[in-house]
Amino acid sequence: MIRLHHIPFSRSFRILWLLEEMGLDAELKHYSITDGSLRASEFKAISPVGRVPALEIDGLTIYESGAIIEYLTETRPEHGLGRLAGDAERVPFLEWLGFAETQASVLASLNMQHLFMGDPTPASPVVLKLEAARLAATLKAMERTLGERDWLLESGFSAADTMMGFNLFSAPYYVEMDRFQNLAAYRARIEARPAYQRAREKDGPQEFYKKEFYPVPEV
Amino acid sequence: MKITLHHAHEARSFRVLWLLEEMGLDYELVVHNFFDKSLRSPDYLEINPAARVPALEIDGKVIVESGASVEYLCEIFPEKGLGRPAGDAERMEYLDMLHYAESIGQHMANLTQAHIVLYKPEMRSPTQMNLEARRLHKVLGRLERQLSDGRDYLLASGFSGADCAVGYGVEVAKRFVSFGDLPHCAAYGARIAARPAYQRSLPPEDVQRIYTKDFYEAPDV
User: Which domains does chain A have, with CATH numbers?
Assistant: First the structure.
């Protein structure tokens, strides 16, 4: 039995999507950022720090989305979605997993400052501006790569792309995406994948963003 | 195999430097200044367009993420015994701990930015600084639990590359959160800092450092 503890539109969507790409049946447990379910004792027993994702699988529980992606692709190599030790693309595969988390940490910081500190936010305009610029720089790096190929790795679609299942859908709230045409085409390719579509159907409505766009305040 | 590590004292590249020392590998160390423009020099941008450290040059490849560098080094030097390869009983825990290092790392980086990189108080948000410190403390709760069975290192079988990834974060985190209610984390920090390879990786006395205070108190809100 596989069980994924999930919040719509969060990092756990990476895992939900990958499970669909692999055709693995998983029980989905939904949580909400607003109703206190993350702090409930049953969830604390599973995830002591109260964060998603948490994946119960093979008698184990794994918490970090990057680790889950490595573990799933390694233990289920028949799906061909990892680039395992010894593979010619091993280094870029691991780097993209790391890159995705570097980028996600900027998004998480923007989420915290724009969404969870009050309205109007007492965040520092200097920090918000810095973080948005940092996010734009990471998107620019992706834009270059995706000008040369359809997916993050040259050999084709991989689990590294599923790491973007959180990032690419959160970034447009903070950075104008018009100037990233390759990224737009990449996102369209993702959205055309049946496994992605099935995952979105199971995902649920997002509760993070109340506005279409959160601009950088005047400094 | 020629190995070159691009490093800035006390930055995330410390993880890779410390691991290289634990492995006893020959490598060339290039130290960059974290504060001036040297990471933006045309020569360095050739190596890493993102202008960040680490960059690990190995075997004609460049690896720029510290977690990927640690994982890869442990993988290609299995005789050093610092990885837990696929199929190992501790594989899942090893991977989870490697990635957990960045759960610590992101709060640590946000706090470093707020307390140190932003040099004027009016650039900072006290609310954010307090929240980040609380989140860092909460994330360390996972490590406290991991160590609560009395083990010395992250994995029951002993020291691994995951300790280099997480241990660096613990040492920096000490400057932003009190470890008073995290006794296992505190003891773990002391244990890793006593390792000869760790000590060899520390900056020399007379250089500019990122962290000049033992503790950075979050401002009152």
Answer: 3-79 (3.40.30.10), 90-193 (1.20.1050.10)
